[in-house]
User: Fold NADH dehydrogenase [ubiquinone] 1 alpha subcomplex subunit 13 from Timema poppense.
Amino acid sequence: MDSTPFCHLTESLGEGIKIKFSSEFLASSLTRFLKQIRRNREEEAKLMANVPGWEVGTWYGEPIYKTLPTDTLIEPIFHEYFAHAAPSDTEKRLFFRLWT
Assistant:
């Protein structure tokens, strides 16, 4: 019964649905990631607005990663990513990552 054309068709359709769903999920999670990075940069700009010589994404004008091109994305560690979030939200996310 597994060798019928209908079974092969449904199996290949199932794989296509999995691929489509996974690519849409990946795209939405990347969009959320980039939006959070943007929010972090905006929050840093507001927070450090009164500090003379401060540039967002640098240490007083000096690039942190001097050996990388300026357009390279450095993924932040967990605590940098949630630096401006509520502590309760950060804890929920941390414990969710630990237990899943």
Summary: The two ends are 38 Å apart (CA to CA). The chain has a mean pLDDT of 80. Residues 92 and 98 are 10 Å apart (CA to CA). The first strand starts at residue 58 and ends at 59.
